[in-house]
Amino acid sequence: SQGADIVDENGTLLVRGEDYFIYPLEKRMEIEKRVVYSPNIEKHYYFSNNALIIQALFYSYIFNNNYKDLKIALNVLDKVLDLGFSDKGVKYSPNLDKYLLNTQVYTLESLILAYEISGNKKYLNYAERLIRILNKYYYNKSLGIYTDLKSSHFNIDKISFLDDIFFLNYRLSKALYGLYLLTYNKDYINRANDIILRLPKRRYLTTSLGYFLYIYPPLEVNIISDKKTELISKVKAVFPYWIETQLLKRKDEEKLERLGLKSFSFNTVYICNTKVCFAFIKNPDIDGIIKKLEYVFKLYKDNFN
After folding, report:
1. Model confidence over 136-184: pLDDT tens digits?
2. Cα–Cα distance for residue pair 57/183, rounded to 1 Å
3. Domains of the chain in sequence order
4. What pTM, to 2 d.p., does this model score?
5. Based on the number of CB atoms within 10 Å of its own CB, is 62 exposed (0-12), middle (13-18) or buried (19 or more)?
């Protein structure tokens, strides 16, 4: 209730938020009618916030095997796409055609997660479409970073929200790494690395995260099987932010060839990074996959220290 007090046009406190929200809707409406004012709270829902909640629900499914949260996440994401997606990206809210970088980045992250977990190529297609929109409308060639839709001509020294912009660009570069691992489209990783090089040295934390991404890239676990498998969520749970997962069927011959993977009559797993596939597991079980992943992350940790 903090920040939701009822005040008049002069800022005079009329009703405290904690004295307002304890009542049901009908009683609250009576209070508003009596004092002739309502609390100054947001009346709309925002697609950027929903995109973050979608990610939280996906992670709940990954860690808790909660199928209800998975269903809600996919339903909400479909609603965001239905109500908010346009040829300029995802809108700020249903009633406000304002396009901000954070909405695009958070939605992109949600789309990548949705594809990995559900295997529905619709979400991968939307993710790649959103990248094309970002490149067309949000990329500032002179700065080498992405900005809000209408902020393509500002002076970088006058941005009051530098930390947010650069951190969003780091998150975008991380998403581009993920898309590269899922598609092997080199445009994605080339643009991601270009963003990292543009992160200013004086922004130590964000820049360090970008360098870490470049030096210790995420891993990709490609599972080749004609049947749905619980391995996806279990593998993702090892380190969800640094592991991309993908279920491929043997009939996906074109994509398998593009990824440089070979299918067999038995189920297989390839573990790759941005440079090479370095592990092949026949008839995989979750313990064997986790053992391989933990070994690589231990190497990351030892080298980092």
Report:
1. 999 988 888 999 876 544 444 444 445 588 899 999 999 999 999 999 9
2. 25
3. 6-35 (no CATH), 47-215 (1.50.10.20), 219-304 (3.40.30.10)
4. 0.83
5. buried
